[in-house]
Each structure stands twice: as C-alpha cells, then as structure tokens.
Amino acid sequence: MSRRLSRTLAPKVGPYFAVMLLMVAATAILWRWDVALVEFIVVAALALWAILSIRRQRQNAAKYLEGLLGSVDQTVRDGALNCPMPLVMFRPDTGEVVWSNDRFLKIAGGAESVFDTDLAQLVPGFDFRWLQEGKALCPDEIALHGRRYQVFGTVTRPAGKGGDYPMATTYWLDITDLADVRDVYHATRPVAAILLLDNYEEVIKNQADNVRSNMLNEISQRISAWAEDAGGMLCQLDRDRYLFLFEEQYLAGFKARKFSLLDSIREVENAGGIPATMSIGVGMDGESFGDLYRFANLSVEMALSRGGDQAVIKTSTDFQFFGGRGQETERRTKVKSRVMASAMAELMADASCVVVMGHKSPDMDAVGAAVGVCAIARMKNVPHYILKPSAPSPADELYRRVGEMKQYQHVLVDREEALALMEPQALLVVVDTNRPEQVMDEELLRAGGRVAVIDHHRRAAEYIEGAALNFHEPYASSASELVSELISNLMEPTDLLPGEAEAMMAGLMLDTKNFTLRTGARTFEAAALLRRAGGDTARVRRMFQTDLTDAVEKYSIIQTARMYRPGVAIAVSDRTVGRVTAAQAADELLNIAGIGCSFVLYPDGDQIMLSARSMDDTNVQVIVEALGGGGNAGAAGAQISGRTLDEVKAELTAVLDSYFENGEATPQEG
C-alpha cells in the first residue's frame, strides 16, 4: 500500500528525457557529432540525478507512511483497550471469543480471560445472527447478571495472513436504569375502560322492584370485585354504564383471564331466565385522557356492533377482541329505523344521483338490498344506479330478472360508468358489507363524496370510516331486512314494484335459510311488507333452484365431510366448485343430526375458499376472522391466499382447538 502510494506521489519525468534524447538524435543526424556527444552526456547526468532524487523521495514517503500507519494501529489498539464500553471480539461463524477488554470481563462475571471461550457460555441466549444480516444494532435487549444491555456491532474480514474468517466486534451499552424507568412508565400509563350492561332493558323488564334492585346490586358487586385487584378508580356514569380507570400493568392480567367479568355477569339472570350481558371497551396508548376516553367509546361501539357480550381493546393503531362467542340476541327498536330513514331521505334529497354497490361476488341479499335502495331513490325522483359485477356471481339470475324490469333498463352500470357518475354531490350506498376491502370496487368507494353504509354483519377491525350514514344492525337477519325497514318509513307497500319486492324477499330467504335461521319478529314484519307489495314466494323460490350437475357436486362435497369435534364437521373438496354450491353444501350439513356447525374448503385458482355455517352457540365469525375472513355468527366465509389446501385445513383445526379449549380463536403460529 505504501509503495504504491509513494510511486503515485513521485514526479513523472520519463517523457521529458525521451524528448531530450530525440533532440540528441536530431543533432547527430545533422552530423554535429561533437554537439550530440555533449548533449548526451548532459542528458545522462540529468537522468542519473533524477533517478537518485526519486528514489530518495520514495524512501522518505515510505518511512512517513509506515510511521503514520503504525501510529494509527497503535491508536486503534489503545482505543480498544481503553474503550469506555465493554467490548468483545469473536468469530460470528463459530461464536469463539478472540479478545475482550477488561470492562467486558467484569460484566461477564469477572473472569480473568475469555480467550477461546464460546460466547454462548458467557452470555446465554445471545443470538448474533443480526450481525451476519448486516445490521449494526441488536434488535433485543440482552440481560446479563442482573443488568440490561443494548449491543452494537460490526463484522469485518481482517486482511493478510489469518484473514480467512470474519471477525465481529460488539460494544455493550448498559441501559439498565433507562430500561427500568421506561418499564415503570409503560406499566403506570393510564388505561380507560367503559363497562356497559348491553341488555339492561331486557333484563329489568317486567321485574318486581325488589328483584330488579337485588339483581343490579349483584351486578355492581361483581364489577367491583373484578376491578378491585387493579387498584383503579371505578365509578358509575349511568344506570347501565361504568367508567374504570387503571394502570396498564394490570391489563395483561385481564387479558390472560380473558376478561372473566363477561362470564361472571352472564351468571346473573332475571326471573325469566334471561342472563345479563356486558360489553367492555378499553382505550389505551392514547396521548391524553381525552384520547383514552374516545378509544374506549369506540371500543364499546365496536363490541355492540359485533353482537355485544365481549371486550374490545382499542389502541392508536388497531383493535383486539375477546369473547363474543355467543349468538346475538335482538336488541333494536323501530326508533332507530325511523331516524335512519329520515337521514337517508335527506341525503338523497341533496344528492345528484345515487350509486349502490354490494360486496365482491354479490349474493341475492346484496342485490335485493341494492334494489330496495333504488326503489327509495325512484320515489324521491333521484337518478339511481346499481354497480353490476364484471365476473359471474351467485346472484346472476337475480341480476337478469332485475335488468328485465322496464324501470331498470338503464340502472345496472359497469365500473367505468359508475366512476363517471361520482360527482361531489353523488351519494354512494354500500350494502351488505362494512369492510372497505370487501366492496365490489375500492376505487369507487374512495371516489364517493358521501357514503352511506347499510349492513347486518358484525363489524371487523377494518371498517368503512367517515360514512355520512351508518345503518349497522348485527341483530338483523339480512341487509334486505334493514332496507325493508327504511322503506316502511318512507313508502307505501304499493309503491314498490313486484319485481323489487321479490328481489328483497330473495335476500331475506337466502340469509335466513327460508326463514329458519337468524329470524326475529322484525324479519317476519319485513317479509309481510314485501308480500303486500306483490312479492310472489313461488317465483322467489324458483331462483334458488339448481341444476342436476350442481346438486351432484353438492352431495359429493358432503360425502367428504368428517366430524372433527363433537358437533363440528369439515368437508374438503380437492377441486374447484361453485361458491353457491359450496355454501349450499355447508347449509345442508346442518340438516344432519349431530352437526351444529360446518366448514367447507375448496381451491379456486391460487386461493383457498372457506364457507362456514352454524346453528348452535358456535360463533363461526370469530373462527373465520382468525383466518382473515368475516361474516356473522351463523354464516361466514374467507378467501385465503398463499397457502395450500392442507395448510388451510391445519390452520382451521388449530383455530377450532383454540376456540373450544381456550375460549378464543387464535390463528396458527408461523
């Protein structure tokens, strides 16, 4: 290195002497031999002097560089020996320690030398793969003899003899005091929780005063006993609402016990045998008490929108869910329907047009609800349109029938036409879903100036935010039922076209399995309204007919079903089938004695499709959510990418085991 550098610094005089020799030769050619001889002697003398001068300069430069590099090496050695932080050098390929300073010897237990020692013996559990990955900072804190360290390091390959293996140099920064203060800070951060007795009216209705008082006192005592260990502040805000403030260090215990207050409150029943249920909304990781209270309120709203009887934790980034295994019970009034109907009428009155879309691969409920919204817009004399799917869907027959109606000749539009309609005053109505990633067209959702959501599925962590109207009732049987309630407050039954009534009736029949599942008094009221509007049940029933090929396919899926646990059947088809056929197979399995919930798996391109159904207390939405899907307690589905059929089945069985054994659905690790 020094020799090359010294050569570089030496002057380049060769060209000059070459020119002078040419001049000597020219003189000789002109027969001036005496002059040429003198010139040659002078050039030779100059060349000798130049060679000696350059050699002397090179020797001086080499001595200077050697001295400089020696002083640098000495400085590096002195710096390593006197480094204010513990330092250890080792081979990252074997873990063999090569050298360490005295400070590292002290933190490693006071050994006199660690040369030729395995680093894993000195620091148990220390994983130094991050060095081999090119990182300069260890991602984890290292605990050693009661102290905590942050480790920095680099990997080099020494040059010269013995440089055939890499060398790692690590510096150990003691952060024990800082880490302890940080842990105390996180442990003592405030957390706000709102405890809501979500079926208060149902529990106390028609109860004697003394029974009502005793029951409410027992509920208060159970809440106080549950909150006592946290040493927080519990106060009753209203007859059915409590505020609980506590430190974050106690939240892990509540989560580990899966918010046992939910089970404790459920043990309190009124004289009619109706158990009390509670929803818990927890807000944490907020910048102020105002943020915590807002997070807690959002958590309670999320819990109620998912059916109640569960706990939801809201942080600054996401939601966590606990409980929610039970089926929903109907807890809604007609007051909300009237309020929503009035709000919908006002939105339509100010809209330049109304565009309606459902979820991806829309079913009859999505189409029926969309037709109902268009019926309201038609009565309000507002231009209205329905986004039609670009690919075949389970509701193709219903789309065909709707398109044949005279009033709907130009209502069904494709994606490009719908996007062109989205002016600032346009109203986009999303039906039968509340998740932005599940709508038919996400770009259309983003383009919508004002958005209204009408849905009956339990709300997921990701939902459409900022909607001008959100008519969300997880206790309803279908989106068509919710739209029927809006119609009952805005129109007369005779104002509905028979085709519109039949489209909505098809949605009702689909989601209730011909009025056998998830039905309430309001479901039959909606069906009666549609019947008075001219809906023909016989014509609707014919929409659900399948051809012989699909029927054979459905029963071939059922033949693959196996009982995984008592009451749980899983059917796996190794070939692609229709989504409707798979859903019908899942429904048909529930007609077999001993089966309370069913799951059907099949491949579709590069995805694995899952259809889940339940008619007992098993909440298939909670199970399917762990696999990335959604739905409601009785019917759910998922589209899973990046995994094989066997892998999805293994993950499903793992989630089922967690659900039935631990009380919560946890996805498979890894």
Report on this model:
With 670 residues, this protein is an alpha/beta fold. It has five domains: 2-80; 87-183, PAS domain (Beta-Lactamase), CATH 3.30.450.20; 190-323, Alpha-Beta Plaits (2-Layer Sandwich), CATH 3.30.70; 334-543, Alpha-Beta Complex (inorganic pyrophosphatase (n-terminal core)); 549-662, Diaminopimelate Epimerase, Chain A, domain 1 (Roll), CATH 3.10.310. The chain is built from 25 helices and 23 strands. Strands 7-8-6-9-10-11 form a six-stranded mixed beta sheet. The model has no long low-confidence stretch (mean pLDDT 85).
CATH homologous superfamily label of the largest domain: inorganic pyrophosphatase (n-terminal core)
Computed Rg: 39 Å
Strand residues, percent: 15-25%
Could you tell me the number of beta strands? 23
Per CATH, what is the topology of the largest domain? Answer: inorganic pyrophosphatase (n-terminal core)
> Taking strands numbered 1, 2, ... along the chain, how are they ordered across the largest sheet?
7-8-6-9-10-11
Q: Please state the oligomeric state of the protein chains shown.
A: single chain
Terminus-to-terminus distance: 51 Å
Which percent bin holds the helix content? 40-55%
Mean pLDDT: 85
Total of domains:
5
Main sheet summary:
6 strands, mixed
Runs in which pLDDT lies below 50 for 5 or more consecutive residues are none
Task: Jot down its keywords.
670 residues, alpha/beta, Beta-Lactamase, Alpha-Beta Plaits, six-stranded parallel beta sheet
